[in-house]
Design brief:
The complex is a heterodimer of chains A (160) and B (293). Chain A has 5 helices and 5 strands; from the N terminus they run ββαβββαααα. With 160 residues, chain A is α+β, with helices and mostly antiparallel strands. Chain A folds into 2 domains: 77 residues, Beta-grasp domain (Ubiquitin-like (UB roll)), CATH 3.10.20; 71 residues, [2Fe-2S]-binding domain (DNA polymerase, domain 1). The longest helix of chain A is centred in the last third of the chain and has 17 residues. The termini of chain A are far apart. Chain B is an alpha+beta fold and 293 residues long. Chain B folds into 3 domains: 47 residues, Uridine Diphospho-n-acetylenolpyruvylglucosamine Reductase, domain 2; 115 residues, Uridine Diphospho-n-acetylenolpyruvylglucosamine Reductase, domain 3 (2-Layer Sandwich); 113 residues, 2-Layer Sandwich (Enolase-like, domain 1). Helix content of chain B is 34%, strand content 26%. In chain B, the strands form 4 sheets. A 5-stranded antiparallel beta sheet of chain B has the order 4-5-10-6-7. A 4-stranded antiparallel beta sheet of chain B has the order 11-12-13-14, with helices on both faces. A 3-stranded parallel beta sheet of chain B has the order 1-3-2, covered by helices on one side. In chain B, α10 packs antiparallel against α11 and α11 runs antiparallel to α12. Classes of the chains: A alpha+beta (160), B alpha+beta (293).
Chain lengths: 160, 293
């Protein structure tokens, strides 16, 4: 069955590897490119843990074969920190509110909320809940996650 | 859960995709957004020998007008249709239905054609296509044909599309008359989940507020989306007061044939369908009246 050379730009760096056609994007990121920050949960598009930003939009990387993404620009949770290694305002707010317990959903939550804040700097609580509606968390009850996104949005607006 | 091994080819043109489908002799499958096919392959409910990727065929994407018809390329992402100004202005029923489709992450990949071809009984896009009597354009190496939505959906997850046919576009009629309104209501366990039942309505009022044209459809409560012509006939010419809507939809269960499954029993789906239909018709009436004011 077919193997393919696949080139991606991940968090600003061009990376290449070779994989079977059936390799999902999340497995390619984790196993071929050693970027294990993106978590793989349900493997059939229900839990949202594998969310990444592909060409500017949040997507589920377990529902895309890596070969289909050839040439794409990908942002994973590893790409959210600043160039100085500091946490992004959103990551900092997750830490501040303790918006996690086991942490399994956290990379997907951060990606979904990062995409939201990029297009909507002042989201309502409903808009926040809608944006993370495709991401399951079994620990927090979502309250601190919503609070973290609100805190981050305020901090980012004040910082301009 | 990993898919069984398969070969993969990216098609650059519609002609190439059609040729690959014909050569595949039923073992080749089209992949567009992959939001249903990839899970089915992960669970090994689908094991195609060859995937033909049509994501980069530019001619399959976008919304164009052809007279009083909106032509939506089969490869257009659901998120792009939802954000399209032309769709919002001329086919607001589709825009409202799309807000119930999955989540942002799936709408960013999922396509209009993919949802139609998958033919899930609860799917919103198919319900709108059926309610508005849209046409579905399919092409094979042998030529192109237009399939009325009523003849496209055959059964749950089954369409009349031939294995060698590629879905090209959805042709959605635009209702241009003044005092036209639409309504869409859906009940799911959570927003974005598969619907227990959903209903769509579009109608036009005359200057006296009487209904002169009405289409009503229900999804999730039969193997395929259905148009409720008996409800439409009962409401044509009426002022669409709540009592008239309630009367016309009272026996809706007779027109539906729902399945019982883990999400809801058959009877619950029938009752839900009736409630959704009443709300959709009332919303459509209110919007048509607001448009007249």
């Amino acid at each position: 069955m077919s193997d393919h050379d696949i080139a991606l730009t991940v968090n600003g760096r061009r990376m290449t590897s070779r994989a079977e056609a059936r390799t999902t994007l999340v497995d390619f990121l984790r196993d071929n490119l050693n970027l294990t920050g993106t978590h793989v949960g349900c493997e059939h598009g229900v839990c949202g843990a594998c969310s990444v930003i592909m060409d500017g939009r949040p997507v589920r990387s377990c529902l895309i074969y890596a070969v289909m993404a050839d040439g794409a620009e990908i942002t994973t949770v590893e790409g959210l920190e600043g160039s100085d290694g500091a946490l992004s305002p959103l990551q900092d707010a997750f830490w501040e509110t303790h918006a996690m317990q086991c942490g399994y959903c956290t990379p997907g939550m951060l990606i979904a909320a990062t995409a939201l804040l990029a297009r909507n700097p002042d989201p309502t609580e409903h808009e926040i809940r809608d944006a993370i509606g495709g991401n399951l968390c079994r620990c927090t009850g979502y309250v601190q996650i919503v609070e973290a996104v609100q805190i981050a949005a305020r901090a980012m607006r004040e910082a301009g | 859960m990993k898919a069984a091994a398969f070969d993969y080819i990216r098609a650059d043109t519609v002609e190439e995709a059609c040729r690959l489908l014909a050569e595949g002799e039923g073992e080749a499958r089209i992949i567009a957004g992959g939001q249903t096919l990839v899970p089915l392959m992960a669970m090994r409910l689908a094991r195609p020998e060859l995937l033909v990727d049509i994501n980069r065929i530019a001619s399959l994407k976008g919304v164009t007008a052809d007279g009083e018809t909106l032509v939506i390329g089969a490869g257009t992402r659901q998120a792009d249709v939802l954000a399209d100004a032309e769709v919002a202005a001329r086919a607001p029923l589709l825009a409202e239905a799309l807000s119930h489709v999955g989540h942002e992450q799936t709408r960013n990949r999922g396509t209009v054609g993919g949802s139609l071809a998958n033919a899930d009984p609860t799917a919103e896009i198919g319900l709108v296509a059926r309610t508005l009597d849209a046409e579905i354009v399919a092409r094979s190496s042998g030529g192109e044909r237009r399939i009325p939505a009523a003849a496209f959906f055959e059964s749950a997850m089954v369409t009349t599309l031939a294995p060698e046919e590629l879905l090209i576009a959805l042709r959605l009629p635009v209702w241009t008359a003044p005092r036209t309104g639409h309504g869409f209501h859906e009940l799911g366990i959570r927003h974005g989940d598969f619907a227990i039942a959903a209903a769509a309505a579009q109608l036009t009022l005359d200057s006296n507020g009487r209904c002169i044209r009405i289409h009503v459809g229900v999804g999730g409560a039969s193997p395929c989306p259905v148009r409720l012509t008996a409800v439409e006939d009962a409401l044509a010419g009426s002022p669409l007061d709540d009592a008239a809507i309630a009367r016309a939809t009272e026996d809706i269960s007779d027109m539906l044939d729902p399945e019982s499954d883990i999400h809801a029993g058959a009877e619950q789906r029938q009752r839900t369908a009736r409630a959704m239909a009443r709300r959709a018709i009332a919303d459509a009436r209110d919007r048509a009246q607001a448009g007249a004011a």
